[in-house]
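Typical record was shown:
=====
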Amino acid sequence: MIPQQKVTIKKLPTGIPGLDEILGGGLPEFSFNIIAGAPGCGKTTMAHQFVFANATKERPALFFTILGEPALKMLRYQQQYSFFEISKVNECIRFISLSHVLQDHGLAGILEEISKEIETSNPGIVVVDSFRTAVRNVHENEVQVQSFIQDLGLLLTSWEATTFLVGEYVEAEVRDNPVFTVADGLFWLYQNIERNSVVRKLQIMKLRGQASVPGMHTVRITDDGLQAFSRTLGLTGRKKKITDAKRLSMGIPELDQMLGGGIPEGDSLLIAGSSGTGKSLLATQFIAAGLRAGEAGIVAVFEERPEEYADRAGNFGLDLNSSIKAGHLTVIYLRPLDLSVDETMQAILDAIRKTGAKRLVIDSLAGFEMALAPGFRTDFRESLYRMIYSLTGIGVTILSTVEMEESFTELLFSTYTISFLTDDIIRLRYVEIEGQLRKVLMVVKLRRGAHSGDIREYEITDKGVVIGKRLVNYERLITGIPGRRAGAGKEGAHAGEDM
């Protein structure tokens, strides 16, 4: 009989950070789910996290194992994760081995034993691991197997239990295996080896009754268990930018003047230049200016450790260690060599929620790319766009550094052809004048406002970047090999240029 009123389905927390967002708010209560994938993908750990997050004394969890290995061996390793609460074992969660039942009585015996345990315990959660093992080791025909699956699903649904069947399936079985037809949810885990790195992925292939996020999502297994990173992380709930944005100081008055008063809040700024031009120092001065103004900041570094970064800033009179100890500055070091952009984004978002930071430095994009797993490097440009779009959308001002190889025929802005992704660009470069290697700076793009077109010389001193005069007696400065203007005297080569 069709109900006359709309049924409200409760959503249960999965206990896996990031997965509830991917599922659209949690897992539907009383649903019949399959966790599939090859060995080592994290299937059993995923099931355990859900069980420990939801099992109670009143509505316990039954965890049936049909593996050749005993439950005690499995628990020996699972209890190493932080989510594992030993006090819940036997009190809220019961582990029951059915390997002997399968050998003696087949699928019918399995169904009978599960039915008895359910009637005795009235569980809220039932897990069968590994369900695939049960089907592979019986000699019943296809009709009997299908009947068993339907009977099991009906039994568990009638007892209002949220169910997981864990199995080592391959994708080719999706079309022909009846278990996938009766399932309400299908979670597929993958483990891909890319060169020397291992990348784990998750796909929600099926979820009845609610909209999940489609596509492949990154998964990492840590001491805390599984953590999932949605491929749309940060893209939802984007706020509109304020048209008349506040200007943020770069920490250098002359540079703020060139920018028309500073960087518009919520912009993405790219500082491009070759090695040794002071990109990181400019970024540090930007963060330090925010700290002096009472604004928290975040720095994501990939080429040096946090303590090294802070010590180097101290060489230029910038005390970052005090701000780090006070919790106003977070320096994130990410270099596992199989990183994903989603994981970086999650670490940054966590730091933003904790500190309320509005300034972010990514130093550098080259280091960021090298820290990624090979497969993620292929999509680096697309992922970087998504990350910038998401963070600026919540009002964070991003300063990224990128190293450029100098060309003496053209002025390049980015190695990654991402200049169009950024709102503002500052270009640093070397020029050769009168047998000396000197540095010049220019603002080449400022999306929300007018900026100076001057090419200014600058120096790196013990007080940081110091911007000097505008070079007026030379032409073709942006090529790096300028020539003296006609009529310009030699006397103006250094001190005679205008401010």
